[in-house]
Specification:
Length: 399
């Protein structure tokens, strides 16, 4: 298997070397994406389209949907070469490539697949998830955004929050409550939303780092037709699980997908002499071992899955990755020393990573939620007592 992976790596590397635009070759990546479009937006879009045509944006997808039909291990080889070359799509395209696209393939109609998948493959259409709400974060199933039938269409009102990259997204995947008389998990429907539709207002939220990729989204008398329903009416929770399990299972083969790769910290330690400190070196080696154990666990989780979007063991990789990334960022800041602690105009990457990593144990399901999933669905422990289980949503107490 390793021999075949090496052959595939050489093949991808040769193709990138031959086709990657010269103006991008000197671009330096440090875990913060968007650099190609900063250099030349038109050229970046053309490059992303070329990647899509080759099948390298979604190598794990079936060929009929623009992929190469690769195994997850083969796809990981492709992604690793693109990351090393700085030639892949920006990190935030993880949402349409790994979450939204597979959900549409699993649950979409032929018309929905034809309309939405090509734009994802070409890197032309950014997507966001319109899931969390001010009163429904960790307990997502208690969401209150309402979709009321109006003839064949739906009129939707509500608010979403922490919707990553919503301000730059063309489309969104929306969860809304369509039957308040059912239990909270049962009366939810999934919709595909054009973010330019009347009634959609997006407001970016400034974060600790100064970035604004989290957003709040207001839905006011948004009208959606029946063709926007993904899956069956009132079966949106199962659709949502496709994306949430995929998010937890497919976050990364390494720590890099979270935005905090270990490799730059190792290089920094060698460059500034901190590698000679035996305590620092031992901590780096420990993180290196955990990172590789995580890679193997993640691949095993995906290989063993027999359900759309990954298995509940994906919560293990999500939990470990979140906390590993925070540990990497903390040690990276420490290794960076005074240069990481003080700056004039541009925040050092070590500082940015430290501040940004606080969100990792919250986004995609908190660490507490992941531990519950592992305990109940992987280890078979008794479920946590929920006095509202089975009751109609409208009878539940909500904050």
């Amino acid at each position: 298997m390793a021999e075949h992976d090496d052959e595939l790596r050489r093949e991808v590397d040769r193709w990138v070397a031959e086709h990657f635009p010269e103006k991008f070759r000197g671009a330096v990546t440090s875990g913060r994406r968007g650099l190609l479009s900063d250099i030349d937006r038109d050229a970046a879009e053309a490059w992303y389209a070329a990647l899509g045509e080759r099948g390298y944006t979604v190598p794990h997808w079936p060929r009929e949907h623009g992929g190469l039909g690769y195994t997850e291990q083969q796809a990981a080889v492709v992604r690793s070469v693109l990351i090393e070359r700085g030639a892949g799509l920006p990190d935030h395209y993880f949402v349409p490539l790994m979450l939204i696209g597979p959900a549409i393939m699993d649950w979409g109609t032929p018309e929905q697949k034809h309309r939405y998948l090509p734009g994802i493959v070409a890197g032309a259409d950014m997507w966001c998830q319109l899931f969390s709400e001010p009163g429904a974060g960790s307990d997502l199933a208690s969401l209150a955004t309402r979709a009321v039938p109006e003839g064949a269409s739906w009129r939707i009102n509500g608010q979403k929050v922490w919707s990553s990259f919503a301000a730059g997204s063309r489309y969104g995947m929306l969860l809304a409550r369509t039957d308040p008389d059912r239990p909270k998990n049962a009366g939810i429907t999934c919709f595909l939303v054009d973010m330019a539709s009347p009634g959609v207002t997006v407001r970016p939220l400034r974060q600790l780092t100064g970035d604004e990729h989290f957003c709040e989204v207001f839905l006011e008398d948004l009208v959606l037709g029946p063709e926007t329903v993904l899956g069956e009416v009132n079966d949106g929770w199962r659709v949502a699980m496709t994306t949430l399990n995929a998010e937890r299972s497919g976050l990364s083969e390494t720590s890099g997908a979270s935005g905090v790769p270990l490799a730059p910290v190792l290089e920094l330690a060698r460059r500034n002499g901190r590698w000679n400190d035996p305590v620092i070196r031992d901590r780096l080696v420990d993180l290196f071992a955990v990172e590789h154990a995580l890679a193997l666990t993640n691949l095993r989780s995906i290989a063993e899955s027999r359900t759309p979007g990954g298995s509940p063991t994906g919560s293990i990789t999500k939990l470990v990755l979140s906390e590993l990334s925070q540990e990497i960022s903390e040690l990276g800041f420490e290794v960076g020393g005074a240069e990481a602690a003080y700056w004039d105009d541009t925040m050092p990457p070590e500082t940015h990573n430290l501040l940004d990593s606080r969100r990792f144990t919250i986004a995609g399901g908190t660490s507490e939620v992941q531990r519950n999933i592992v305990g109940e669905r992987v280890l078979g422990l008794e479920r946590e007592i929920d006095p509202g289980r089975g009751k109609p949503w409208r009878e539940l107490r909500r904050s």
